[in-house]
Design a protein that fits this description.
single chain; 440 residues; alpha+beta; DNA Polymerase III, Chain A, domain 2; Arc Repressor Mutant, subunit A; 4 domains; 10-stranded antiparallel β-sheet; 5-stranded mixed β-sheet; 12 helices; 26 strands; 30% strand
């Protein structure tokens, strides 16, 4: 799969000097539309040290390749202003770890100038400066502030970064996957530190493990069990370690599992003063989110509903389904399907702590989402070729038999036999579902 080139252009490099942290922004989207250098916030951070450590954690994930580590070009984090908070997001180079730092209203003492999404420059000089942040007051400006003097002789700092399409797909996949998670465990700050420091490191941590509640903590177990959370590659939680001195709690999220289930994704959220840092891990260290297939259902849904709901979004910190249903005239279940489809285009994310979507706009072509999922294209080709035929309780698709039972489906193809639906639906199930709904 070919790469695409993302260009970041900044008026200056981000810097930290004399207690003033200036994060330069690249082109993005604000409430009024596209903006060259959006200006989102200026004011003080109420607790500078954990905020600086959180920004470093997000930047660390962006420059790390957890599977087959090699030198990677740095990718700049995405920042979204949702009016009452700032969200910083990044994806690992291998596409297997998603990181997000939410600076909530209690962490910010200043003025929100606008809402929107853009990239922020977090280069090596800034990272080195952030490591030295202590308890002194820290002023934060996201975007050029009102004192910035720009002349015709000024230089623009430009970065051209090749982004693998699988990295872009990962952003779309992770919000669909995490929307199905539930809170499974919560540890106090002391127990969280004890648990994280006890995890195996390096090559011993390469396989998928599981954790189950054990008193006030968690213990490792080799297999899935009711209430368990998958912990695939425990070393991928290392970005949490520097924030443990500031932590108030650690929460683990995951899907419901049964004995014998295959490894699955999980999310680990560190609760900090006025902020949250979450790391979401793919089901295996060698497996990026890009191939999980969670977006396929959303991409088969009606695009018109997504267009209508998308037009009503305004960078809300919490997307209210009932309110969107009233405004759009759509029933709530169609609004939820529309949000899922918007998520496949990177236009919404999912906040586990609040169990709600939030609006943001990732800097890539939303039309790429469907083009980057060949299983969906192959399913539509099977329908166009007349290869979908009902046969009693079964649907025959391209020589394979698809069976529907309640809300579940299975197939006789090799893909289904290997993954059992753990990496999304095969082309035959997708084709059968689309044909059954009459969305051809």
């Amino acid at each position: 799969m070919s790469d695409v080139t993302q260009s970041y252009a900044y008026l200056h490099r981000s810097s930290l000097a004399d207690g003033r942290l200036g994060l330069e922004t690249s082109g993005g989207t604000a409430l009024a539309g596209p903006a060259a250098h959006p200006r989102f916030f200026s004011g003080f951070l109420t607790d500078p040290a954990p905020a600086a450590a959180g920004l470093l954690a997000v930047a660390k994930v962006a420059r790390t390749r957890y599977f087959l580590p090699i030198q990677e070009r740095v990718r700049d984090p995405v920042v979204t202003s949702n009016g009452d908070r700032l969200r910083f997001e990044s994806f690992s180079a291998c596409c297997g770890v998603y990181a997000r730092l939410d600076l909530l209203s209690d962490a910010l003492d200043g003025e929100m100038h606008d809402r929107g999404t853009t990239n922020v420059d977090v280069g090596e000089p800034l990272r080195q400066s952030l490591t030295r942040v202590g308890r002194d007051p820290l002023h934060l400006a996201v975007g050029p502030d009102e004192l910035t003097v720009t002349t015709f002789d000024g230089t623009v700092v430009e970065k051209k970064v090749p982004l693998p399409q699988r990295w872009l797909r990962g952003f779309a996949e992770v919000q669909v996957i995490t929307a199905g998670f539930e809170p499974r465990a919560e540890l106090s700050a002391a127990e969280a530190a004890r648990f994280l420091r006890s995890l195996p490191k390096g090559s011993r941590a390469s396989g998928a493990q599981w954790v189950v509640p054990a008193g006030r903590s968690l213990r490792l177990t080799p297999r899935a069990a009711p209430g368990a959370v998958c912990l695939p590659g425990p070393q991928r939680l290392e970005a949490l370690a520097p924030l443990l001195p500031y932590a108030r709690a650690l929460r683990a999220y995951g899907p419901a599992v049964r004995p014998g289930d295959l490894p699955c994704a999980s999310a680990w959220e560190l609760d900090l003063p006025g902020m949250r840092l979450v790391l979401t891990l793919s089901p295996e260290v060698r497996r990026g989110f890009s191939g999980e297939g969670a977006v396929l259902d959303g991409l088969t849904r009606d695009e018109a509903d997504a267009d209508l709901v998308g037009a009503l979004l305004a960078f809300e910190p919490r997307v209210e389904v009932d309110l969107l249903a009233d405004r759009s005239g759509l029933p709530a279940d169609r609004v939820r399907h529309a949000l899922t489809r918007l998520g496949t285009a990177g236009r919404v994310g999912f906040d586990l702590a609040e169990a709600a979507y939030f609006h943001r706009e990732l800097p890539y072509d939303a039309g790429l989402a469907e083009a980057m999922n060949p299983r969906l294209a192959n399913a539509r080709a099977l329908i166009a070729a007349g290869e979908v035929r009902p046969d009693g309780d079964l649907t025959v698709v391209g020589g394979q038999r698809v069976r529907f039972e309640s809300d579940a489906a299975s197939c006789t193809c090799p893909w289904w036999a290997e993954y059992r639906g753990s990496r999304g639906k095969c082309k035959h199930v997708l084709a059968a579902e689309i044909a059954r709904r009459g969305d051809t």
